[in-house]
């Protein structure tokens, strides 16, 4: 059973629909104490970093998330803003702390090519490293991105995919059981469904 | 860099079917003369299979009474399709935004109320992120220049589309959906001059719409600078699908997603 | 005008899904190259397993959608002879079957010994659908495409026969799927490849706005996925498991089943095995030429070039001779749908695919009469009144 965390921000319905379409069961979690009941967790997110971390904190998810993810090593997938809040610091509007699971800062994208507009919205080619999460994809995939801020990760080996938009930016991260996709797999048609399926089925140590 | 996008435009209208009323998809000409073309959920599934990049649904009745039906359609659509959906039509406040975004929509398009209460653009952008806010700008050639029209093309405003587009960007819009009403449904080409002017002067993405009748028209729109081209009539009345049109566009050297 | 064509075969830029690489070679040619690298031995093993999985468990081991043409005849022959399965053979009658194909069908069915389920939909509905599809999509074959794809699936559910074998994979002629992509023949493929012209049966009802009884479009409706999943359906192409070679296969069915080819309107006489089952094929091909500037001879020659049976120069000469002729059957079509010849050209021209521009003055002489022309059923078409209702919709 996959648990999709509802902290008041995020396209929960689309994520749930995608997981169910793939043949798995999914539930929306509103009670932070119930996280332990699920085998894998998804943290979606649409909106702004400060509001996101504020909501997660106020709804009581921080402690239980740290428990399930850092101590019990439960696989978790952060999508878009859900991935960004896993960083240590966010700089969207105001400088605030994130969940701190990655040594990274979320910053405004500044492309070095004027033709690259912000927000970065649309389908971008994504250069994927060799990883279980991309198994089944035979060509350079294109995923749907929609964001203005990017995940600047200090440790390169935690970045498992990048995209180019007037510079190279993080498209996906992975550190053992903690996974993040900057793009929306539930909005990326076939390839999106493949990488979502891989998160649900592969093992992460 | 992102690929250019192909976005089918799906116009929703409540129509009489014998003794029943049914929400169907229609096409228009100059924002008039609605012709039935299909069922919203069926067409969404077809476009998903044909690898459209996104879908835009516009409720052209824009009536509050139909809100429930529109929500129901968006919910059904998002159960079976996995690409971004924009919904618009009569959106007047932040609550409307929240209603659509929590029922399957990824972006919300505003048009009339962006003009009437421009602060809505800023409020929505702050609350939900600029990427959720699409401002639709409909315009016609009038009095030797161009004028923005609201209320489904019925009411003329004093705004010039280019100036209004720049203003919308300042107010926090994420994208502009730019439609030339004179070209709507006619199939004789896009307004490449306006597309070129607007895309040169603003930095947010522009979805150009109105006038596609051949694959080459899409190419003209992209070459004029559009980040995306949206078409309604084209896919309903031509022996063309997004997969086929995409191939034509790629053959012209424009970076577009290929369907594999 | 001259169209840009693949530098290897001669398929032009107006062909659906075509893309050219920097050598000017098209993606259909590329796709065929993948075919040569497929591990057909392993695929054959998959086929063996698939068939054994379903054998003997249902009233029929599988369902074979059948037209009587070379591909479905070959598929049926192969499955019965090689695997000795008990199939349910299902044919959806589009309304224009030619005498030779009826004879071929009878002979094939009797020689192989199989149960045959034949369905003919209501002609009064068919002629309306033909006109509607022609007007709005430039292709009058909607009822046939959708019927052939959907009706057998309904039969599979009704008779509880979950395994369905189609013939050649679409990758043989187009690039909707690549040869190494698994091609399940499901609703998504149906929608993707445009067989329904982007219009489902439900959409068609909306376009007719209550002028059609929903029951009248049932034969053209693809069943809901949940109903198909309930019977545990597997709908696949035989051509995904065994390499498809139309020339070789046609010869085998001629020798083993006495299958006979036929001459076809505006197609070179050496191709007697292609599209022989429909007497509206000539009109269909002509419309394609008006819209896209090429038609069946290009398609056939390109296949031959890819299989090293023809040189490119020879192909180009051949299509100049055969393409663009007005078919003798045109008047039959006009009578069916109640259109004048001028209206026909106006409609076809409105669906042109850029950059092709059909030159009205270049309309060549009419093609010769086919031998069975007099036996083709004519008349009982739409009244002018009925036609005008549809013309006035837009």
Report what the structure shows.
The complex is a heterotrimer of chains A (205), B (260) and C (394). Chain A is an alpha/beta fold and 205 residues long. Chain A contains five helices and 13 strands. A nine-stranded mixed sheet of chain A has the order 2-1-3-4-13-12-11-8-9. In chain A, 54% of the residues are buried. In chain B, strands 1-4-5-6-7-10-11-12 form an eight-stranded parallel beta barrel, surrounded by seven helices. In chain B, α3 links the parallel β5 (85-88) and β6 (107-110). In chain B, α1 runs parallel beside α2 (67-80) and α6 runs parallel beside α7 (192-201). By secondary structure, chain C is mainly alpha-helical. Chain C has two domains: 40-240, Rossmann fold; 247-391, no CATH class. Chain C is 45% helix and 7% strand. Chain C has 16 helices and seven strands. Chain C has helices at residues 27-36, 40-54, 70-83, 99-112, 123-137, 142-159, 187-192, 201-208, 225-230, 246-257, 281-292, 296-306, 312-322, 330-337, 341-350, 384-391; strands spanning 62-65, 87-92, 115-119, 163-166, 234-237, 325-326, 364-366. Chains B and C meet through β2, β3, α1, α9 and α10 of B and α7 and α8 of C.
User: Per the principal axes of the C-alpha atoms, what is the gross shape of chain B?
Assistant: globular
- The name of the CATH architecture of chain B is Alpha-Beta Barrel
Give the domain tally of chain A. Answer: 1
The CATH homologous superfamily of chain A is called Class I glutamine amidotransferase (GATase) domain
In spatial order, strands of the major sheet of chain A run 2-1-3-4-13-12-11-8-9
User: How many whole angstroms does the radius of gyration of chain A measure?
Assistant: 16 Å
Q: What is the CA-atom radius of gyration of chain B, in angstroms?
A: 17 Å
What low-confidence regions of chain A span 5 or more consecutive residues with pLDDT below 50? Answer: none
How many domains of chain B? The number is 1
